[in-house]
Amino acid sequence: MPDYQTILAERRDDVLVLTLNRPDRLNAASLDMADELVAALTRIDGARAVLLTGAGRAFCSGADLQARGERSGALGEASHASLTRHYNPLMVKLAELDVPVVAAVNGPAAGIGCSIALAADFVIAGASAYFLQAFVNIGLVPDGGASWMLPRLVGKARATEMMLLGERIGAEKAADWGLIHKTVTDEQLMPEAMALAERLARGPTVALGLMRRNIVAAMDGYLDALNREAVSQRAAAATGDAMEGSLAFLQKRKPQFRGA
Predict the structure, then answer these.
(1) Domains in the chain, ordered, with CATH?
(2) Nearest 5°: CA angle at 214, between 189 and 206?
(3) Surface-to-core class of residue 193, CB atoms within 10 Å of its CB (0-12 exposed, 13-18 middle, 19+ buried)
(4) pLDDT digits over 210-224, tens only?
(5) By three-state DSSP, how is residue 29 classified?
(6) Structure pTM?
(7) Residues 232, 225: Cα–Cα separation, whole Å
(8) What mean pLDDT is predicted for residues 178-202?
(9) Most exposed among 103, 122, 161, 227, judged by the fewest C-beta atoms under 10 Å?
């Protein structure tokens, strides 16, 4: 396996286990992490299923705000570039993968981390996990395909609740809503997820790959949503509220939004 800097890649028989590996930052998704995930998913080397999880106390706490402008440009343009060049290619790669994907969610799956988790075919969450569309709390808009996925998974009312209120959805509620496959105890999380991934890896791989692509195709508009989100994020990120929201997040205080 290649030597990655932000993820771990391990082959367990026919299952490729990818672990987001920035535990000191709650696995905040940097641009490099998105790129490394794309690279790892491109080189599955005959694996017949993929298991995604996070190291330490989190699945993924969202995009790394400290790295959002790491590749120069105004905040709005940098946000648009981050999505179109890094995060959206990851979401497309997950959608187009020829093998099934299981996500084992430990702790928070927030922002882009929520989208990455929900892009899996099966999402299993530990009891302490939660799902959060945190964008409204920092003056931005949901991305990573969330505006496409959430209404289809849980309906308009619950999707609106998640996106406009920005409150945590615990693992048990997420399962009740149909947002995820199931919830288990934290101790059972990895054994249950691995058992499911191994079961899928023993299945008819070509047929499973065709099924997952057909499901995405039947729910038309995914790529359009990714592009629309990127344009919306550029506009939202250029506002004073977005700057205030990002600063407040980094300074660990409540933002004072002014509506512009």
Answers:
(1) 7-187+202-206+221-250 (3.90.226.10)
(2) 70
(3) buried
(4) 999 898 888 777 778
(5) strand
(6) 0.91
(7) 10
(8) 98
(9) 227
